[in-house]
Structure formats: C-alpha cells, structure tokens
C-alpha cells in the first residue's frame, strides 16, 4: 500500500480516530522528550479547536493578532 493510499484511507476515518492516528504518527518521529511534550501540547490544541472546546480565531482576528 502506498503512502497516498494510506493517507486516503486515513482521511476516511472518523475524526477522533484521525486525531489518535495523528498523535501516534507524530510521536513515532519525534525522539526528544521536550519535542514530544511540545508536540503533545500542539495536538491537544488542535483537538480542542476541532472538538469545539475552544474557538479558533477568525481570519480578521488572526491578522489583527499578527500586527
């Protein structure tokens, strides 16, 4: 199975399973504990936005924050 086929199959998974898979893949490529911790925090932040636990910024809010 090619990586493209795997990616296509993964995208058909339910959201929670995709997030779990993403977490596992990221953990498998990051070796340093500090990296793993920061990646874990980033994945948790993504999950919080995806699940509606927190609200992401609108495009205009994002652009204002960059200024």
Question: Can you lay out the helices and strands and say which pair or pack?
Answer:
Elements (H helix, E strand, L loop, with lengths): L2 H9 L3 H15 L3 H18 L8 H8 L1
Secondary-structure content class: mainly alpha
How large, in whole angstroms, is the Cα Rg? Answer: 15 Å
Q: How much β-strand is present in the residues?
A: under 5%
Helix fraction bin: over 70%
Q: How many domains, in number, for the residues? A: 1
Total DSSP helices: 4
Oligomer: single chain
Give the low-pLDDT segments.
none
Secondary-structure element series: HHHH
Shape: extended
- How widely separated are the two ends? 45 Å
Number of strands: 0
Q: How is the biggest beta sheet arranged?
A: none
Average of per-residue pLDDT values:
86
Please, could you describe this protein's structure?
The structure is a single chain. This protein is mainly α and 67 residues long. It has 4 helices and no strands. The termini are far apart. The mean pLDDT is 86. The protein has one domain. Helix 2 (15-29) packs antiparallel against helix 3.
């Amino acid at each position: 199975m090619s990586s493209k086929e795997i990616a296509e199959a993964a995208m058909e998974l339910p959201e929670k399973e995709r997030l779990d898979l993403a977490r596992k893949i990221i953990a498998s490529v990051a070796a340093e504990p500090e990296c793993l911790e920061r990646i874990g925090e980033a994945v948790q932040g993504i999950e919080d936005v995806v699940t509606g636990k927190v609200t992401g910024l609108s495009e205009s809010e994002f652009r204002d924050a960059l200024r």
